[in-house]
Amino acid sequence: MTHLATSSTDSRLPRLEALQRGARHLADPSHELGRQARELLCASTGLSPQGVDYALRNCLEHRVGRSTWSQLVRRRAPSPRAHVLLSANVFTAAFRAIGLALTQSPHVFVRPSRREPEMAQLLCRASGGAFELVDSLSPEPPEPFWAYGTDETLAQIKDTLPGGVRFHAHGSGMGVAVFGPSVPRTSQGLDEATDRLAMDVVAFDQRGCLSPRVVLVEGDADYAGAVAHSLARAFARWEQRVPRGKLTQSETADFLWYRDTMTYAAEALPAGKGLIVRDPVDDRVVVPPIGRVLHVTRTDSAEAALVRLASRVVCVGMAGDETLEGRLRKAIGERRYVPLGAMQTPPLDGPVDLRAGWEAEIV
User: Fold this and answer.
1) Could you give all domains of the chain from N- to C-terminal order, each with its CATH number?
2) Is the dihedral of CA 160, 139, 129, 358 positive or negative?
3) Which residues contact 320 (CB under 8 A, 6 or more apart)?
4) Which of 123, 120, 122, 152 is nearest to 137 (CA)?
5) Which residues of 258-278 are buried (b: 16+ CB within 10 A; e: fewer)?
6) Quick one: pLDDT at residue 189?
7) Is the pLDDT of residue 277 over 80?
């Protein structure tokens, strides 16, 4: 393992800059590390080659400047060590997770996901060893421990930690898209909005906590139907540009069960390899499986429908007038509220998931 030199002064920022340079190399398809990343990540993630390239170019936060990291470092008191347990679902998320830990300590220990270890290894090599890869994590109080995974996994991890560890748990989540009544209903205006939403779904084949799964449409039944059909066309276009990758056996089983069920219970629209479902029952909120699938529901009140999903919602993508965000924020509180097309690229201002944010639970 290669380590960056550590002086008596705080070396958090130099290590963050090294991590940033490494990410730029990985994002660059002409760089040797970028070429290696595209080959290795196709095998480890199951994404198509185009899907990996799309994520590296558009979702890896390689364009963040020094000033962003400087602000984050100034906000965090230094810790002797920090620890990170990564998840497999969104490979580019390793960059932010490791970067946030480096804002707290120059000595960061990372355990990659066993299902997808490649991105952490690539970042470590590309950054010259800005952090250390380990097979197991041993945090001591009051060191920070950043953990990403399912809610069940995080609960099990919490039970094993020594008292006094600062536990940053970031579990399961999802995105929701909202179409307000003011979206232009012309073919061009609606197609532009649905194309941006399709772009949010395509990234990582919908596996991330920011990925939209449910679409709430404020308006009449014809409007909801128009949104659904426009989405199906957008998905088909994106399938040609960025084909869906491989689904696991369990993901495939869930997809087929949902498709077959909704063929009888709703209007199921083929959409590339994905699916758009237009629910005929107003205000019925069904969370579909992943695999480029959206469940479209008509509602008179997006706020009321969103409240029923509030505990699971990390990001809300919006198409509507200037009052829409205020209404939704009042209903469910602090989340990522962004225009459609920006759900997978939140600003690097802290953790993606604002349900917990920077706050740590003292075990």
Assistant:
1) 12-172 (3.40.605.10), 174-339 (3.40.309.10)
2) positive
3) 178, 179, 180, 181, 182, 183, 218
4) 120
5) bbeebeeebebbebbbbbbbb
6) 86
7) yes
Residue 57's CB is within 10 A of a number of other CB atoms, namely 13
Give the integer Cα–Cα distance in Å for 119 and 37. 8
* Helix extents (H) in the chain: 12-27, 32-45, 49-58, 66-75, 93-104, 118-126, 151-160, 187-202, 221-241, 249-265, 302-307, 324-332
Give the integer Cα–Cα distance in Å for 298 and 278.
9
Q: Are 210 and 285 in contact (CB under 8 A)?
A: no
Q: In percent, how much of the chain has pLDDT > 70?
A: 97
The 10s digit of each residue's pLDDT in 294-333 is 999 999 999 999 999 999 999 999 999 889 999 999 999 9
Query: With contact defined as beta carbons under 8 Å apart, do 44 and 117 qualify?
Result: yes
Tokens of 348: 């690097």
What is the predicted pLDDT for the residue at 132?
A: 98
Question: Which helix or strand (DSSP H or E) is residue 141 part of?
Answer: none
Using a 10 angstrom Cβ sphere, with 0-12 exposed, 13-18 middle and 19 or more buried, the burial of residue 326 is exposed
Rounded Cα distance between 75 and 349, Å, is 11
For residue 286, which of 233, 344, 225, 215 has the smallest C-alpha distance? 215
Average pLDDT over residues 209-237: 97
DSSP state letter for 162: P
Looking at residue 183, its pLDDT comes to: 81
DSSP string, 252-312: HHHHHHHHHHHHHHSEEEEETTEEEEE-SSTT------SSSEEEEEEES-HHHHHHTTGGG
Using the predicted structure, report yes or no on whether residue 121 has a pLDDT greater than 90. Answer: yes
* 177 or 189, higher pLDDT: 177
Residues linked to residue 295 through DSSP beta bridges, in sequence order? 214, 277
Q: What's the confidence (pLDDT) of residue 1?
A: 39
Tell me if the pTM is above 0.70.
yes
- In the structure encoding, which two tokens stand for residue 199, read together? 């772009």
